[in-house]
Design goal:
By secondary structure, this protein is of the alpha+beta class. It is 41% helix and 21% strand.
């Protein structure tokens, strides 16, 4: 049996340097230095509106591009959409490569806004992770 969509999203997010998971609003969120870059919305939660999806930090320009390119896959999530966040529906045939790219972009956007001290902490976590990967 293939892994659940939540399991796949979790694996992608937690592979990013310094990323961690924390439950908020009854669902998992993924953060870098405690700043949210992605949040899961299950079909059973009102945020998911009957579909499993993930909301990802984005710029308004990229959000608009994705909404126009594939309105069946992407949507503007309630509450966060006006700030550029984009929702990805995880039903049907999902391109996990595309999901990983959008999640990585959300992570990078969030990490780019960190204060210098937070970036230094993140840099140490990245070096630590890459050392473990080599051994």
């Amino acid at each position: 049996m293939p892994p659940s969509v939540l399991t796949r999203v979790r694996k992608i997010c937690l592979a990013l340097p310094g990323a961690h998971e924390k439950e908020a609003w009854g669902e998992p969120t993924w953060r870098v230095c405690n700043k949210v870059f992605a949040m899961y919305a299950s079909a059973s939660n009102h945020h998911g509106a009957g579909q499993n999806c993930v909301w990802v930090n984005s710029t308004q320009i990229n959000q608009e591009f994705m909404l126009r390119a594939d309105p069946k896959r992407f949507f503007s999530p309630p509450y966060a959409g006006p700030y550029g966040w984009v929702g990805i529906r995880l039903d049907g045939r999902v391109s996990w490569k595309m999901v990983a790219e959008v999640l990585n972009d959300g992570y990078e956007l969030t990490a780019s806004k960190l204060r210098p001290k937070q970036k230094a902490t993140l840099g140490a976590a990245t070096r630590s992770t890459s050392k473990r990967a080599r051994t």
